[in-house]
Amino acid sequence: MIDAKPLDVADGMRRRRMHRIFEDRPVPAEVLGRMAWAAARAQQARSGVRHVVVVDDPVLLATARQVLPGFLNNAPAMLALCTDLDQAGATGGPRMVEHVSRLDSGAACAHLALMAQTLDLGVCTVTSWADEAVRALFGLPAHIRPDVTVAVGYVTKETASPAVRGFTSGLHHNAFGAAFEDGAR
Amino acid sequence: MTAADEGLSRALYETVTVLVCSAPLALDETRLLSAFRMLDAADRLMGIMADHDDDFLRRARADFADHRMLAMTDQAAFTDWMSRYVAGFAAQALRRTRAEGV
Ligand SMILES: Cc1cc2nc3c(=O)[nH]c(=O)nc-3n(C[C@H](O)[C@H](O)[C@H](O)COP(=O)(O)O)c2cc1C
């Protein structure tokens, strides 16, 4: 049985942050399975396009810290979210390959950041690497494109870094440049 | 080869890998991130040298740890900090060269 905490969705969005320091203890396979399920449940424009590689082999993680320059954390596990380019092309054409499938990987990252909080886990989205390095690490065939690697591990209040401040998004009303005044932040 | 030599060689090999795998990112990311990757590799090398008690390197590593996130959150502040970091290393290099002679 997995010990999962209920989470208010808005609360989870507010608390969401990237973690780069994790506890040493491994994440059990069933907990990683729950995370993989969360990634798989995220929006996907066509069936069979998304592939998730669940990684908990310490050798692979130690190597990832060398060959993925953006993997600047001590996570004991990660999920690699990938796109089947053949399937994407066959079911949705070039736009599915270059645009839509990446949106779907981003949506999976958002699910992971929320699901993690119900399991006392933290995540860090990592994309600073060369595709070839991820391919070599996980034996991805040529038609499988790595989109994002997500570090996963247990976190506590002590391991969490302070929330990053000052990241903004533009908000517009009906036309670009017209402010949207909703008052509810 | 002693066990210590093997450990050193292994740690250096890992850092060589970090540098090689960082190289292609220079073509796809900002120049500031390339600078960050070089400092990250330098930090790893300093970590390898940490066994040899060196106060300057210990402080340099702490300084990098305190400021590395600025590369993601405040690029102007990161650039300012990096200038000071480099000035510190240049002054230290001069002190060392003077002390050790050419
Ligand atoms: C698509 C994406 C890619 C990212 N790539 C990396 C990465 O390669 N390495 C890393 O340490 N952080 C990475 N981050 C984390 C960002 O630096 C982080 O989201 C940002 O500092 C804001 O912090 P917050 O998400 O905790 O609010 C990435 C984030 C996103 C959304």
Automatic annotation (TrEMBL), chain A:
> Which residue intervals define the domain Nitroreductase in the entry?
65-154
Is Flavoprotein tagged as a keyword?
A: yes
Highest taxon above the source species: Bacteria
Query: Which CDD domains does the UniProt record give?
Result: Nitro_FMN_reductase (cd02062)
Q: Name one Pfam family in it.
A: Nitroreductase
InterPro entries this protein is in?
Nitroreductase, Nitroreductase-like, Nitroreductase/BluB
Keyword field contains Ubl conjugation: no
Indicate the transmembrane segments per the record: none
Q: Which UniProt keywords apply?
A: Flavoprotein, FMN, Oxidoreductase
| Example of a GO MF term | oxidoreductase activity
This protein's name: Nitroreductase
Give the species this sequence originates from: Nonomuraea endophytica
UniProtKB/TrEMBL annotation, chain B:
Q: Which InterPro entries match?
A: DUF6092
Pfam families under this entry? DUF6092
Source organism superkingdom: Bacteria
Q: What is this protein called?
A: Uncharacterized protein
Source organism per entry reads Nonomuraea endophytica
- What are the top taxonomic ranks of the organism? Bacteria, Bacillati, Actinomycetota, Actinomycetes, Streptosporangiales
